[in-house]
Amino acid sequence: MISHVLVVDDDDDFRGLAVRMITAFDIGQVEQAGSCAAALDAAERLHPVAALVDVGLPDGDGVALAARLVAAPWRPRVVLTSSDCSAAARADGIPFVAKEDLAGHVLRDLLSGQE
């Protein structure tokens, strides 16, 4: 069975960068979504083991999306991200990593369950 990791961000360039970084972590096949609707569709189809979710999405709130994913029956590990670090205050217990800090081992550990 293939493990999937979902990257949700409306910025194509950032999403591509995040996909390359997470692919290097070797924790699963990385899938992409650019909106809340696309992320929910992908999550229902793929049951990802983990997801990286941008706080600001064009069709909804990334924090609310992350909460829905965390509550999914398959219990994916979810990490929120944003270039606005004040968004961490809205994370409500969901791990947050600033976009500028994604290259570190913290993201790998959170997504792979090694935190």
Describe the structure.
It is a single chain. This protein is an alpha/beta fold. It has a single domain (4-112), classed as Response regulator (Rossmann fold). Helix content is 37%, strand content 24%. The protein is built from four helices and seven strands; from the N terminus they run βαβαβββαββα. It has helices spanning 12-25, 36-46, 62-70, 105-112; strands spanning 4-8, 29-33, 50-54, 56-57, 60-61, 77-82, 96-98. The strands form two sheets. It has a five-stranded parallel beta sheet with strand order 2-1-3-6-7, with helices on both faces. Strands 4-5 form a two-stranded antiparallel ribbon. A hairpin with a 2-residue loop joins β4 and β5. It is globular and about 40 Å long. The mean pLDDT is 94.
Low-confidence stretches: none
Number of helices: 4
The share of residues in extended strands comes to 15-25%
Query: Can you tell me the overall shape?
Result: globular
- Mean pLDDT, to the nearest integer, reads 94
CATH superfamily: Response regulator
Number of domains: 1
Roughly what percent helix? Answer: 25-40%
Level-1 CATH class name: Alpha Beta
Evaluate the radius of gyration. Answer: 12 Å
